[in-house]
Specification:
Oligomer: single chain
CATH class: Mainly Alpha
Mean pLDDT: 90
Helix content: 40-55%
Number of domains: 1
CATH superfamily: Cytochrome P450
Bound molecules: protoporphyrin IX containing FE
Strand content: 5-15%
Number of helices: 18
Structural class: alpha+beta
Length: about 475
């Protein structure tokens, strides 16, 4: 070999060896069998593919290509294992407890110093949130919820031939949350916060490019403005509390109790800290419940036989009540069929269009013959069981009887997740949705205006025309 060739080969071997050594070091998992999948492009990974396809199509494609149980991808700048099916759900709920949220989402929601919110379950506030959302605590809210829906119906439904259900359910859900979380009832103030808040929800799962004019940058700005408005309310309420000017109904709102909450060291939370918790609650409750309400009404307007059964159940309850008497806990317990209808609607729609939750893998774990290394993020989606014919025969059929008797098999019906990180707002959602449906069905017949209305998916399903429904007033006593 000529001297020239020797030098050339040595020069080639050196960088290749360095590259291979670097890759091994970086990977560190070369001798374990990680779930199959693709890392996508440098930096952005598969984020664009995920955002352009939507969660359902993205997951279906990956399951076909790699594995039906678990595959890996790279989104939100993280290596992520996506668990599928009932066994995958069970694994996430029971083995992966540490919750995780993408930094891009946290940047919109929180001040940097409070980025542990939603994740750290050892905090006093975490237990507090679970306590205030327990059925016993929520009983107090039922008459308030009922009174607010009645006002909403009088203002926005009565006197109209056609109503756009989706924007209306959003407006109502947000006003109710403002009342129950911070006792804010001033319409102008609620509207002002709402204007900033919609920027937050549309920015949260948009392409995370923080440049002027992008949905993401509007989201970051919106989050800051919402927290600022909330802080003003909190400061005012703290002052009133100190001057003992609290008016009586305030004890039912979450803020009144948060102001009195102390940590392990007896320290009260700052106004800023509270505003970060409240925005988390607003986000968790807003789109999930408003979308659920919209889609239950969509099914009721499309399926007269289902409407008829719900009508029978709810009017029986209404007829036993005095004029103007508000709903109570016992009434809600009688709404069994109506709740099954809500469950079936949740199965088919609400949470299926996004990842349902995120976790952090804190130690190497094994699942379905693969090892998921420490440091990976994990996710799951209710879509992988909710639309599976093995879990729900004839999955596209709307059939509330699936929830009668023993109901679906364990870990197959999971709109609220499961295990320790299961949604703590489930009961709040149940009450809010049932109270709303009660007030609509006992007043109106419903007819869908455009059965072909397109539904687009942006973390939640959105009817593009706002879900117009023709309403005719009826009298349950005639
Ligand atoms: C139909 C309505 C709702 C649905 C479908 C829903 C669904 C979910 C899901 C899937 C999770 C993630 C569970 C996991 O990671 O395993 C979750 C978490 C959570 N939800 Fe909901 N949710 C709803 C309404 C609400 C409401 C009304 C509130 C508050 C009032 C709320 C508060 C929360 C909170 C605080 C968490 C985090 C729990 C934790 O990390 O420990 N949700 N929800």
């Amino acid at each position: 070999m000529s001297l020239f060739l020797c030098i050339f080969v040595s020069l080639l071997i050196l960088p290749v060896s360095i590259f291979l050594a670097w890759r091994k070091l970086k990977n560190g998992h070369s001798n374990i069998k990680v779930p199959p999948g693709s890392g996508g492009w440098p930096v952005v990974g598969e984020s664009f593919r995920y955002l352009s396809l939507g969660t359902q199509q993205f997951i279906s494609e990956k399951r076909r290509e790699y594995s039906t149980d678990v595959f890996q991808t790279s989104i939100f700048r993280q290596k992520m294992a996506v668990f599928c099916g009932a066994q995958g759900n069970k694994f996430v709920y029971t083995k992966l407890i540490k919750s995780w949220w993408p930094d891009t989402v946290k940047k919109i929601l929180f001040d940097p110093e409070f980025s542990h919110i939603l994740v750290d379950e050892s905090l006093v506030i975490h237990h507090f949130v679970h306590e205030i959302l327990k059925p016993e605590a929520l009983k107090l809210y039922i008459p308030v919820m009922d009174a607010m829906v009645r006002e909403h119906v009088e203002l926005d439904w009565d006197g109209n031939e056609v109503v756009k259900v989706h924007p209306l359910s959003k407006k109502h859900t947000f006003s109710l949350a403002c009342r129950l979380f911070v006792n804010e009832i001033d319409v102008q103030q609620v509207t002002k916060i709402f204007k900033h808040f919609v920027l937050v929800t549309s920015g949260m799962f948009s392409v995370p490019i923080n440049l002027p004019g992008t949905a993401y940058s509007r989201g970051v700005k919106g989050g800051k403005l919402v927290r600022e408005e909330l802080e003003k309310i909190i400061t005012r309420r703290r002052k009133e509390l100190l001057e003992k000017k609290e008016t009586s109904p305030c004890y039912t709102d979450v803020l009144s109790r948060m102001l009195l909450l102390t940590d392990e060291n007896g320290k009260f939370m700052s106004d800023k800290e509270i505003s970060n918790y409240i925005i988390a609650l607003l986000v968790a409750s807003y789109e999930s419940t408003s979308t659920a309400i919209s889609f239950v009404l969509k099914y009721l307007a499309e399926l007269p036989h289902i409407y008829h059964e719900v009508y029978k159940e709810l009017t029986n309850i209404a007829k036993l009540k005095g004029e103007g008497e508000l709903l109570n806990w016992e009434d809600i317990q009688k709404m069994r069929y109506s709740w099954n209808v809500v469950c079936e609607s949740l199965r088919l729609t609400t949470m299926n269009s996004s990842f349902s939750g995120f976790r952090e893998v804190v130690t190497d774990v094994s699942f379905s013959g693969f090892t998921i290394p420490k440091g990976y993020k994990a996710s799951w989606s209710s879509y992988t069981t909710h639309k599976d014919p093995e879990c729900f025969p004839d999955p596209e059929k709307f059939d509330p009887t699936r929830f009668e008797g023993k109901g679906p098999a364990p870990y197959t019906y999971v709109p609220f997740g499961g295990g320790r990180r299961m949604c703590c707002g489930k009961e709040y959602a149940r009450l809010e949705i049932l109270v709303f449906i009660y007030n609509i069905v006992t007043r109106f017949n419903l007819e869908i205006v455009n059965p072909q209305e397109k539904i687009v998916f942006h973390s939640f399903p959105i009817p593009v025309e706002g879900l117009p429904i023709r309403i005719t007033r009826h009298n349950i006593y005639s």
